[in-house]
Task: structure prediction
Amino acid sequence: MIFLLIIFALLSFNYLIFLLNIVRGIRIVKNDNSENDNKDFVSVIIPFRNEEENLLKNLASIESQSVPKTQYEIIYANDNSDDNSVNVLENAKSWSNVKIINSDLNLEERGHKKIALTKAIEEAKGEIIITTDADCIHGRDWLKTMINKFDDETAFVSGPVEFIEDETTFSKLQRLEFSSLILVGAGLIGKDEPIICNAANLGFRKSVFNLVNGYEGNLNLSSGDDEFLMQKITNEKKYKIKFCFDDKAKSFTQPNSTISQFFNQRKRWASKSLYYVKKSTTLKLVMIFLFYLGIIAQLILGLFYNQLFLLSFFFSMILKVITEYQIVQIDSKELFTPANIKIFFLAELLHIPYIIISGFSGLFGNYEWKGRKIKR
Result:
């Protein structure tokens, strides 16, 4: 019993150190006020598959950016859509610098998005590539804010993404959970340990993309075009990786409408975790996963074996709640509006089974995405 208590205490201590590093990292990126009047030509690339309902809003928001139209182009990379997406775009685009590129037909079970992105990047004229998703919309200064984060030493910039919540509890929970992922990514970048980012809002230099051979080595995986690229660039050691902690840099997207969609998305994200460039990164994620498993184990052991495990359970929960409250409700309020306190505590309870279920299913299960059944 003492051995188990020590194991649970070590897992809790490891998680506490992880969260405190996130807090420090967020404060570092918040205080990074570096901004450049960047005049590089920019290629905005939007991969899409079956997005006919979202493309018009997306196109309108990108065409209306405050950056001069002579400074950027828009490339839509069609990932073999079988709806009316291409016709919608063709009829809507009114600017010669808006292009539609069709990806090669890919009958494999993985890597579709990466192939579409690679073809678009090859044809892009810009040295700076900014990617977003077809279901995202952006404020007028989004592009300007993102590209001004680049200086001569910066090769990769991760930006914030926010769910547009409605009045349902489900959307409020998703918004909080998603913003916490963005903040963890920001904190890790601030601590010079880049692991997490989101392709709905990021930028990189085309020359560095080519230097690290782009997505080569990861085409066997369906997810991870964003994170694997960032980690490969990090390994070069000679470039800066930044997070743009600025409200004007946000991409906005809709939350999942059903629980099934939510878990399919999270399974897709979790499916890449064993393939990160650094095995030490995978080990850190495994230790965090074991912390969550340990919380459930402590509760069960406390109820049915020895009440000492209940004490360790409450210790783990208090540690988790206090530190995560600091991250998502206090240190991030300049970027994300703090959640209602009831939503926060409900999310804290649901977070534990959600992490365990999505972790296991992402590692061992297949999933469906954009009308495709995809093997992990």
Observations:
- The chain has a mean pLDDT of 88.
- The chain has twelve helices and twelve strands.
- The first helix runs from residue 2 to 30.
